[in-house]
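Limitations
The structure tokens in this dataset are predictions for the assembled complex, not deposited experimental models. Users should treat interface geometry with appropriate caution, especially where small molecules or nucleic acid strands are included. An illustrative entry is reproduced here so readers can see what is and is not provided.
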Amino acid sequence: MARKDSELTGVKEIARRANVSIGTVDRVIHNRKGVSKKTKDKINAIIKELDYQPNIFARRLASKKQLVFAILIPKVSQETNYWEAPLLGIEQAGAEISPYGITVQPYLYEVNDKKSFLEQVARIDLDQVQGVLLAPSFIEESAHFIKALESKKIPYVFINSDIPGYNSLSYFGPDLYQSGYLSAHLMKYLVKRKEKVLIINISQEIDDQHHLSRKEQGFRNYFKDHKIESPILKIDIQQTDYAHVSKALGQILRKEPVAAIFVTNSRVSTVAKYLKKTKDTQPILIGFDYTKENLVFLKEGIIDFLICQKPREQGYKGLMALYQFVLHSRTGEKNNFMPIDIITSENCDFYIN
Amino acid sequence: MARKDSELTGVKEIARRANVSIGTVDRVIHNRKGVSKKTKDKINAIIKELDYQPNIFARRLASKKQLVFAILIPKVSQETNYWEAPLLGIEQAGAEISPYGITVQPYLYEVNDKKSFLEQVARIDLDQVQGVLLAPSFIEESAHFIKALESKKIPYVFINSDIPGYNSLSYFGPDLYQSGYLSAHLMKYLVKRKEKVLIINISQEIDDQHHLSRKEQGFRNYFKDHKIESPILKIDIQQTDYAHVSKALGQILRKEPVAAIFVTNSRVSTVAKYLKKTKDTQPILIGFDYTKENLVFLKEGIIDFLICQKPREQGYKGLMALYQFVLHSRTGEKNNFMPIDIITSENCDFYIN
DNA sequence: CTGAAAGCGCTTACAG
DNA sequence: CTGAAAGCGCTTACAG
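Predicted assembly:
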């Protein structure tokens, strides 16, 4: 039995109401050119009126082309295996969405190397990419790339650190300020009144905008807010290799013995390595991330606390957010702050990224 | 231009090779009857040889029927809002997979009421259901239901507690034994040598197979393994209302003052309520779950530690596992133990289910 | 037990 | 600027 006209669904019903062919409807839906403003407006009105939701099965079946998501994050380096976890999460999400015709293409840069970041960016062909998941480690270089994405209307998601003020789809990672603030809260329990505390930033890139600075601010503000009298020293080390770090540490620690040290990133293991070699009384040591190197020192008792923020989940959820948006136009929360997990030698064996 | 025969894909290629129609191929793929063994075997061999993966877009487009997943979990009760979290996770997953033609039907039973469990089970029409997500609170009653599922070949996933020995697709929840074990580890730091510790089970159903017993075993075994000399008392309270619990507590605590109490489930708030009213020295109190009631007592310092195991994630991941299996024949890990999070008044505001 | 045909709701050339 | 038709890879009656 033939369907009544009024029961048509989808493009056919739209076409019928607009008195055009489904081809024209398709053109309007995809914002392709070659449609008069008049018919375009008419069709759009009907789409709105019907609250038309395209059938994704039909769409993906008819259009054989794959969607490509580019992943721009650091590669695992000799210094740290931190970036293994996000990649695992991304791979899992990638496997789950691959049946929907999505291909994930990783572009991995050296974590300390702006040039390598730019090289990877150059390799991405934006005409072949429908979404980007990135860790914007280098702020200026990222800004440039993001402009290109926005002009092509390619959606992008930040993980691990964000750059406020951009129109990213969403962000999955720590609340940097808050994680510094919580570290200070922990610190409060561990140092006595007026004992000195040292903040260490170890990174090639350190400036006021930078991610590490936001953690430092959180840390300092906790001390301010709670009127803690311990003086805060601070040192920036812009060469990340052990030789440089140990030299810088030696200089300051010989002059200024401190009760506790707060390292603003995963490089805490480098500091631990130095402390282990000195026989002085060991200061309390707090740092970031569940890396292989850090775990060793945590279990040895050199590192006291690690703050960790679900790196694996950042990758997984970040990619899923991209998928939800590109395939289903579904947007979730913009800022997704990971829980601030406190890892000690006692609970580290149970930790799940 | 006509395609070369060898380029056919999917059912058409299978049909060509087997010298049958695609209708017959479809029958074999779906194990429908009415195909001679001979052709069936031939087709199955070809499917295997080609490693044929059905195109889910085409499948879902052609077959207009919805898939239904039944959710069988407790409803939020007056006594505890624990089950709110899993339901939220389930709803989120449900929203994400609804574009794929999946409908989620909740069947919520009273957490303390076997009859209500059976009533909900009776409401589920197994001929209309393609998967089940359940919290098997009542062991015998669940066993019966599971048998029905297995005879109909309906896949099912456990959350929150499992029943070992069944052929569930997977389990998302605590490692019950381990969470008892970790609780004891915590306890070790908090009680002095030879001080008494009290274990409290509050539940209508308590027996050797039961979930609570497995936590208790873990707890006891930690003490054994580590030769901790504190004597362990234990009490089972099978009426969960405050009147009964407080009476039972009064009886034992008047006779036997204890340094610490371990409540094996979320009912710890009932114990806290009692302790708050007595003016005796307060024992250390450890229990389970991030419920509204428990949080109040945690912040007041009556409850010292809450063990929490991501109830929201259990629901989300459980439903996703069902979806992955039913739509993509993808199976993950069978046992998915949630991390054992330790919540204190210090970090409770940062906790994410 | 098996086949031939229609149709699911889109996209993609191609024709005008 | 627009339309008509073929086709994506399945499932679903229906016919025999």
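Some entries come with short summary sentences. For this one: Residues 9-12, 22-23, 26, 30, 54-64 of chain A lie near DNA strand C (CB under 10 Å from a C1').
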